[in-house]
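*Target chain*
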Amino acid sequence: MDMENIAIEESIPQIEGYFEDDSYDKKYETDVPSCWNKLKDDEYLPSYVTTPKVPTGVYEIVWSHTHQTYTLKKQPFKTDELYHLPSPEIKDIIEDINSFWNRVDVYKKYNFVHKRGILMYGEPGCGKSGIIQLLSKLIMDKDGIVINVKDEDDVESFTKFIPTFRKIEPKRPLVVILEDIDSIAGENRNQVSRLLNILDGVKQIENVVYIATTNYPEKLQERITNRPSRFDRRYKVELPNEEIRETYIRHKLNEEDLNKINMTEWVERTKGMSLSHLKEVVISTIVMGRSFEETMENLEVMKRTPSAKGESNIGFGK
């Protein structure tokens, strides 16, 4: 028996006793689930009746001790940073992914697996997570779903569960998020092998975009970063320039707030800051009511605070 069939069988629940009526049939013990059974708290179990597709949204794959199988658990979707910034990275990524979804027939014509890999890297707080939120919303607008893979255990769960998912919903647009991929598969050979098995090994699936982020690309092995079939495009997310900083500030503040601040000063004084620092400027000054000068002084203290490696720069541009 091949490994894919083993993984499918491992994720098939023991169905007997699940249903209040007499719809259970012994033949289901060997069949592959074709639907979803909705459990409590937005959790979905592979099943043979009820729901043919899960609602669009963001999910994690979790092990159900009650049902002794993997389920899809719906997660809250944060929208606090959900907007377009005038960033060339955002523009290029969105154009690339939209083109990918629109060319499924072309992929089939040339006998290519319909999948895409995007790797974003850059300093902490530069907006990679915000881009992920934006891309997640875009796929949900296409009636797709997002699956988060956060650590080594999630990689194993995904590997075992995804064949079942694709048996139930073979054409559903899917985005898989591998945030902080260096912590999922850095220098550990076994972890890297498991990850590669997802990206272009025997577990690869179609109609999927893998989006990975890292603050430390140097920790990743070259067979991950320098192999187009795994991550086809790489984008460095830079610190926000003047235009992006002003756009961010204007987006966060209402008209009354904007009339109270010196926009030119705010934009000039925040040069070299990340979006996370800009967020703190808004929170500290507008929400907490501190002066702009006090806020900037506190951020300068943060800048000078040594990190664990003895470095003084913790996110500001050099």
Notes: The radius of gyration is 23 Å. Residues 88-236 form a domain with the Rossmann fold fold (CATH 3.40.50.300). The beta strands are 35-38, 43-47, 57-64, 69-75, 115-121, 145-148, 174-178, 208-214, 233-236.
